[in-house]
Amino acid sequence: MQRATRWVLPIFLIASCAPIGRTQGQGHTKQLAQDIFKELIEINTTDSVGNVTTAAEAMAKRLRDAGFAEGDVKVAGPNERKKNLVARFRGTGKRKPILFIGHLDVVEALRADWTTDPFEFIEKDGYFYGRGTEDMKEGDAILAANFIRLKNEGYLPDRDLILALTADEEGGSSNGVDWLLREHRDWIDAEYCINLDGGEFERDKDKRLLAGIQASEKVYVDFQFESLNPGGHSSIPSPDNAIYHLAGALSRLQSFSFSANINEITRSYFERNAALTTGQVAADMKAMARQPPDPAAVQRLSAVPYYNSLLHTTCVATMLSGGHAPNALPQTARANVNCRIFPGEDPEEVHQALERLANDPKVRVSIVPQRTPDGKVVPVVPVPPSPLLPEVTEAMEKILKVTWPGVPLVATMSTGATDGKYTRIAGIPTYGVSCMFFDINDNREHGKDERVGVQDFYDGVDFNYRLMKELSSPR
To answer: I want to staple 274 with a disulfide (CB 3.0 to 4.6 A). Which of 87, 285, 332, 424 is the partner?
Structure first.
């Protein structure tokens, strides 16, 4: 899946921002982090011709060379090209472990589309270029570099720290986090999970706006709308046409809206944002924060696409196919309908709603199954939001005050999906914390000439190091 748009949900109001100063921690690990970043970018890990196993083994070698025991570094998976790295930094065991995850795979990239080679790590004009620099090999490099740094320092945490760098987050049938939870839960079981594939720290040019913590995400589910017909010669038109039946169902979908929903995070968003807005919008946001929300306010805010996605499950037709010849009545007509389901809602209830919406015996609605590598269907289940643990939010606030005074901690909800859905479903609270800043006006993930700021990357290494220690230092 893609690292989709994050809706920003303030916990605290934005205060004045101050730039971060260079830290001693950055200086010690700068070259190591850059070397790891370069190595990962230059290993092609696309689904078509790439090899995630090569990247996993490269990181395993670095960890072993740094002193990690052979038994604490594992490379395993259901596919020879899709193996995952799991490493354990041993602590005293006073508290339960923390799991840190990132995915090694990247989306496809054509050299002809780029001004640079997408699989060559290039530093230019204050940026690092290459496929995966933003999504999300920068996070993988940050995690690997800091595990090595902590080992070199002789650090002894009061809990185990677990690193999992995995396959197929961007697509494919060998998703690493899902496979590890099913086959080796004991390797990655933890009190909670920090996912560097979420919770962006956002800046607008030189101004740092907020530090995100993703505590919730919508569930990605594809449905197929299908109409079948015996067909016939096109010289004898018939109203019983598969394409017409499908078109009718999709037309009804276009004008349909699921019921509004709200949770702890979105309620906080409307309550806090009301103070930053004026007029009717501010009044509607205040009304949304009440229990129950005001129906008129829901209707007005839902007219804005941004707010609509925060309040509702959304479904949209994304692909069409049909017919077999230009001079024949269509025997088949199909559409893929992509739904982003509000956290906690039952996907089967969405399925039933779409069937009622189609309202045509000639149109069949079915869930497009996700399968394990051995062909078994993975059931679609609700993904609960994660409660905002004070241990995590207080640690982040403490570090923010030191590194970027005035930059607020902000809860976010993804409208897409990350591997955090698997850990949340498994009962492991999960928090997206990217640790580094991304320019809100220069989003190139999955696109051409993908890049991240050089200093943003080094700052992210330092923030992640501080966060690891804050969450695991003996108490």
So the answer is: 285
Residue 164: both structure tokens together: 């999992």
Q: Are 404 and 18 in contact (CB under 8 A)?
A: yes
Q: Encode burial over 12-35: b for 16+ CB neighbours within 10 A, e otherwise.
A: eeeeebeebeebebbebbbebbbe
Cα–Cα separations (whole angstroms), residue 467 to 142, 161, 348, 435, 449: 12, 12, 38, 9, 30
Q: What residues does 371 pair with on adjacent strands?
A: 377
Count of all residues that appear for the chain in the document: 475
* Geometric angle at alpha carbon 347, from 342 and 350, rounded to 5°: 85
**Phi, psi values for residue 130, rounded to 5°:** 145, 155
Separation between Cα atoms, residue 356 and residue 359, nearest integer Å? 5
- Residue range 219-377 forms a domain whose CATH class is alpha beta
Q: Which two tokens stand for residue 346?
A: 């039952």
What tokens appear for 156 in the block? 């002894």
Domain spanning 6-217+382-472: which superfamily?
Zn peptidases (3.40.630.10)
Instruction: Give the position of tokens 């099913």.
Output: 182
Checking if the pLDDT of 56 tops 60, the result is yes
Residue 407 and residue 209 in contact, taking contact as beta carbons nearer than 8 Å? yes
| More confident position, 410 or 363 | 363
User: What pLDDT score does 402 carry?
Assistant: 96
